[in-house]
Specification:
By secondary structure, this protein is an all-alpha fold. The protein has a single domain, classed as Tetracycline Repressor, domain 2 (Orthogonal Bundle). The chain is 66% helix and 0% strand. The protein is built from ten helices and no strands.
Length: 231
């Protein structure tokens, strides 16, 4: 089928395709994402989508990168909203922004941090720059606390030699950090991730209208358990 006249073509079609994909994910879940269904919703032919995304996996990769980019912008903005001298304040701001972003964009959160799509493997080379930048806000604050001698922790596991090249590659986009800072950042992320995942899955215990009360308690617990007061 010939393309419609240029005056009838959808402007910025790649972005419109992604917006439609997010709506499909919200309604039916990521595993059933379909290029043909997106084409039908937009009133275009499937080959029109293939010009930009040759298959479903290519579209999923683009969505993952966009999700990480959005998440990263929120994390970095939260960090930078607090003076660099107030490292604990920066850590708290990052934590609060994490929950707020997940609640605002649950489909994006689930796509990058939730249940994997069966049979899909994200292309690391494409996704890593955005993923590393997304975590860089937290890692940078933990690294600054380490340098200041304010972390209260035992020796954490070292990065496995098989993954050292990936960690080195991560630092190209996420910034330099000591492996121990990176390990601690992952542990902190895992703790907040659990509560946020329960909240957006509507499985949080009834301690408030949402999960904020428990979540803020956990942020305070992390601070008191892992960070020494500034002398």
């Amino acid at each position: 089928m010939p393309r419609p006249p240029k005056s009838q073509q959808t402007p910025n079609l790649p972005e419109v395709i992604k917006q439609t994909a997010w709506r499909q994910i919200a309604e039916h879940g990521a595993p059933v994402l379909s290029l043909r269904a997106i084409a039908r919703a937009l009133g275009i032919t499937a080959p029109a989508i293939y010009n930009y995304y040759p298959d479903r996996d290519a579209l999923v990769a683009a969505l993952i990168i966009d999700a990480y980019s959005s998440f990263g912008e929120a994390q970095l903005a939260a960090r930078d909203s607090v003076p660099a001298s107030d490292l604990v304040g920066r850590l708290q701001a990052i934590g609060i922004a994490y929950q707020q972003w997940a609640i605002t964009y649950p489909e994006r959160y689930q796509l990058i941090f939730g249940t994997p799509i069966p049979g899909y493997v994200a292309p690391v080379e494409q996704v890593l720059p955005a993923a590393a930048r997304a975590l860089s806000a937290l890692v940078s604050v933990i690294e600054a606390l380490r340098v200041a001698g304010r972390l209260r922790m035992n020796r954490l596991p070292e990065i496995h030699p098989a993954y050292q090249p990936m960690f080195t590659h991560w630092q190209r986009y996420g910034g330099y950090c000591d492996p121990q800072s990176f390990a601690l950042a992952i542990l902190i992320w895992a703790r907040v991730h659990g509560l946020v995942s329960l909240e957006i899955g509507h499985q949080i215990p009834p301690f408030g209208s949402d999960g904020t009360a428990l979540y803020r308690y956990e942020l305070e617990s992390i601070q008191h358990q892992l960070i020494n007061s500034e002398e």
